[in-house]
């Protein structure tokens, strides 16, 4: 399927949902189950409210040796769903991990379908109290499965769904603030006629945005608690990578909600993960946040809580992580005054001698920012800034002092190589 085909499929499903809600939801559930590689049968029975707590005991997942089928029963309100599939589903192949360009494209289309489902319904049926309740119940049941293909595929769908919800709600919040600002500006003017009509339009627009962000926030929180929280520590590193990668997207897309220690703590905790790809996702997520001053200023408490761990990751077993971590620390040093002690800077500067060139270059950039930068000129009567020769002379003296005070007196080529990209005017024209 191409992008237009996925768009058409979503539009057709939304139309069918408006015509027959129950039938469309069952089709959607069957679609997600089949995308998990399950060729079995999905049956649904209406949930009876008088069952009360007994319904919990019906939520099972077991293997029937006589029939050779797996059974999974779980609640996706208003139904109790039962999925049956043959034992062969336990194999390593299922659609989103299939080899070759066809299955890679399938994964892209699957993610795109999930995201478009939100974008196509947010202005109509997304918050009808039925669609997302059923979808959340279905994904929650599948992500808790012991069968890896079900758990992996549904976790990917849930995380992509959260990404789309975060993107949509941030857009709504931005529109609400814009409408409120325009309304306040127009209310200051005392014009008549057309102005009154325009004020009524702005007021209607304000009220359109009034309750929707809260409703979508409730959906986000419910989906987050029922899918992300159980899965971010999954035994599979692939699922943990998906969770951390998408969490980084949510914080960037929807900082109004996610740029908060209640969500950032998961990134901090997973910096200790045993899998290098998970740790890398966490570092990259933090780098993206510290590249923007607005978000960096809200991360002070987070950094001081995980500062020791981030510093230690400059000695990670994976060299790619060490260089990304050094770049992160450079960004942090640019935003916070006095964030590192003199001893911590000495510790970081020594990595300019690293044999891994990206790490040495990243350390060289930190040296240029913190050690070789010209001193600031304060006051109204500050002297003229030094010319390029004087500035290079000052920096060369500082660099020689750094070299002599270090313990790597036989590693001059490493020092020059580390500064080659960061300070070309200094080391290439000495």
Automatic annotation (TrEMBL):
Residues 228-313 form the SCD domain. One of its GO terms (molecular function) is chromatin binding. The keyword Transcription does not apply. Pfam families: SCD, STAG. SUPFAM superfamilies: ARM repeat. It comes from the Eukaryota. Belongs to the SCC3 family. This is Cohesin subunit SA. It comes from Neovison vison (American mink). The lineage of its organism: Eukaryota, Metazoa, Chordata, Craniata, Vertebrata.
